[in-house]
Amino acid sequence: MAISIISEGKTTNEAIEKGLKELKVSKDRVDIKVLENGDKRSFFSILTPRVVKIEMTLKEDKDVKTKKENHNEKKEINVARKEIVLTEEEKVKAKENIVNFLEDLLKKLPEDTSYEIEYKEIGFCVKINGKNIGYLIGYRGETLYSIQNILLAVAGKGINNRVKIILDIEGYKEKREKTLESLAEKIAKTVIKTNKPFKLEPMQAYERKIIHSKLQENSKIVTTSIGEDPNRRIVVSLKK
């Protein structure tokens, strides 16, 4: 909850200065709203001492906000690793939903396209393999993630528990994961060598998790995420 105070003074500047001293912050850390201005007085109050009243609200610390966002993002990593418990009936129903969707999808794809479905602790792992189906991956996997979201909705029909789906097409995710892990290591070495933070390009949440996971055990490095999706990105820097 934001912290607000009411401050008074003979002038606006005086009221602001009093408020800043009370909050013990600089002017750029607060939002200021003039509640009552002494310039607008009636004839009968002209002998009354001039008073300016303002409301001063402390802005949320950007570092605190960033730490909260990154805590939530890293929390998602641990949650994703936990087992999602489905009953045997739910597993059968979910797989049936997935198969029906994929069978319809394959009718629109080259004849040699196939799929695999395997249930693991983290959920259903679905793989689509074939030739000339790179368009199903899209730029930086955007189309792949869209199909995965559709599969999530389809698989969960008629099921109470949440169904987890991990979709891979032509081994894209496996290759991408290795690429990102290698990239993370190289960036960490560069940051340690130059003592300068490195800002990565915007990534999908799944890809940011790979970077976070790879570097979270590095005692010299800290990773933070900035911005909003779809432009959210990771910044790798030295621990203070």
Task: Briefly say what this structure is.
With 240 residues, this protein is an alpha+beta fold. 41% of the residues lie in helices and 22% in strands. It has helices spanning 12-23, 62-81, 88-106, 142-155, 172-194, 205-215; strands spanning 4-9, 30-36, 52-58, 114-120, 123-129, 165-169, 198-199, 221-226, 233-238.
Question: Which key phrases capture this entry?
Answer:
240 residues; alpha+beta; Ribosomal Protein S8, Chain: A, domain 1; 3 domains; three-stranded antiparallel beta sheet; 9 strands; 22% strand; elongated
Could you give the topology of this structure?
Blueprint: E1 4-9, H1 12-23, E2 30-36, E3 52-58, H2 62-81, H3 88-106, E4 114-120, E5 123-129, H4 142-155, E6 165-169, H5 172-194, E7 198-199, H6 205-215, E8 221-226, E9 233-238
Parallel strand pairs: 5-6
Antiparallel strand pairs: 1-3, 2-3, 4-5, 7-9, 8-9
Helix pairs in contact: 2-6, 5-6
How would you classify the helix and strand content by structural class? alpha+beta
Quick one: CATH superfamily of the largest domain?
Answer: K homology (KH) domain
Write down the CATH class of the largest domain.
Answer: Alpha Beta
Tell me the number of strands: 9
Secondary-structure element order, N to C: EHEEHHEEHEHEHEE
The helix fraction, in percent, is 40-55%
The largest sheet, given as strand count, sense and whether it forms a barrel, is: 3 strands, antiparallel
**Spatial separation of the terminal alpha carbons:** 28 Å
Radius of gyration: 27 Å
- What is the number of helices? 6
| Net shape | elongated
CATH fold annotation of the largest domain: GMP Synthetase, Chain A, domain 3
Percent of residues in beta strands? 15-25%
